[in-house]
Amino acid sequence: MAKDEAATKMKRKVYEKELHKLQVELCHLQEWVKAHNLRVIVLFEGRDAAGKGGTIKALTEKVSPRVFRVVALPAPSDREKSQLFIQRYMQQFPAGGEIVIFDRSWYNRAGVEYVMGFCTPAEHKRFLSLCPQMEQYIIEGGIILIKLWLEVGMEEQERRFRARIDDPLRQWKLSPMDTESFRRWYEYSHARDLMLKATSTKHAPWYVIRSDDKRRARLNCISHLLKTIPYSRIRRDKVRLPKRSAKGRYNDQTALRAIKSVVERY
């Protein structure tokens, strides 16, 4: 990474201050979604190592997992392969008062499945043709649908891949599929372009987030969501802790002494 490029990266202190402000607003959004029984789907797509996981973590770390539910489906089973393509995704759709975040989605068919040959050209073409209609149906059903594409540059992706190779805490992120996607950069670019052209519609547009600077990308993503989902702050009554009752008072630590405890190494 060049020195001037590193200098433009957002500083941690600035990032954490801005992230805190946005996370407070996400808590207000959460209350609004619950109160008004809204249903929201947020799709995260993008190149490998584009920062989807870190962005989703920043988005969800201060809110309730009962409202913000993350879905990251594994490869389909043999049974799922025999179903309608979108069937296993629809099973994860939100109920009232939920925001479902897809860490990759039905757009796998337009990306990895198409590039790696896991679907036929006819299946790929059919998906691109039917997807806008399907998403129109989802939106007309009352679901708010937000589609985000994280785009990382070629040099930055390579830097992140090499960092994963050397870091035991991140090696699990580097799969054979990731290394193959690294080799096929331009094939993925072509697949991306076809997908965006066919499925970025007036009713369900794609939004691109540049993610070479992870911190800026996370803040821009959360800010976009807050502006896309209309909400207002809900006034809540201040919680007051009641006095503890002394009824049945006894030494409630005595019974614990007979149970094994974890060795206190720290």
Q: Biggest β-sheet, characterized?
A: 5 strands, parallel
Q: Assign the structural class, choosing from mainly alpha, mainly beta, alpha/beta, alpha+beta, or little secondary structure.
A: alpha/beta
Q: What oligomeric state do these chains adopt?
A: single chain
The tally of structural domains comes to 1
N-to-C series of helices and strands: HHEHEHHEHHEHHHEH
Strands, total number: 5
Helix coverage percent of residues?
40-55%
Shape assignment: globular
- The DSSP helix count reads 11
For the record, the CATH architecture stands as 3-Layer(aba) Sandwich
Radius of gyration: 22 Å
- CATH names the topology as Rossmann fold
Low-confidence stretches: none
GO molecular function: polyphosphate kinase activity
Keywords: ATP synthesis, Kinase, Transferase
Organism: Bradyrhizobium jicamae
Protein name: ADP/GDP-polyphosphate phosphotransferase
Protein traits:
alpha/beta, 46% helix, ATP synthesis, 266 residues, polyphosphate kinase activity, ADP/GDP-polyphosphate phosphotransferase, EC 2.7.4.-, five-stranded parallel β-sheet, Rossmann fold
Describe the structure.
- Homotetramer.
- Pfam families: PPK2.
- Belongs to the polyphosphate kinase 2 (PPK2) family. Class I subfamily.
- Its EC number is 2.7.4.-.
- The protein has 11 helices and 5 strands.
- It is of the alpha/beta class and about 270 residues long.
- The protein has one domain: Rossmann fold, CATH 3.40.50.
- Strands 2-3-1-4-5 form a 5-stranded parallel sheet, with helices on both faces.
- α2 runs parallel beside α11, α3 packs across α11 and α7 packs across α10.
